[in-house]
Amino acid sequence: MTTRLCPHCAKLVADELVPAFERARAAWGSDLPDWVEALARELDRSGFTGLWAGRRAILSPAVTRCTIENRLPPHIDTTSIEARVRAALMVGEIEGLISRLNDGDTHA
Q1: Does an H or E element contain 67, and which?
Q2: Which of 9, 32, 39, 95 has fewest C-beta within 10 Å?
């Protein structure tokens, strides 16, 4: 196993071939936010190249990795990161929620 210095958080991290979702689950535990899970699953599905192709280039690879691994420095506000992930990857979920609310589902 090799190690590298993360360019975003300046911590020494191991380069492992572990799926992003598994890294996220290990790092966040039961507090894994749904938007981080969506980001990790999409990264596993399409890789960095697919995830950042075209209009979906929402976060740098370093910010993506640090978010998934719950290693963002404390001075970074995750609100904008969350908003970008939700807008790019979870639009269908948001549209479904709006549709259910418009249909009168008060438990959506």
Answers
A1: helix 61-68
A2: 95
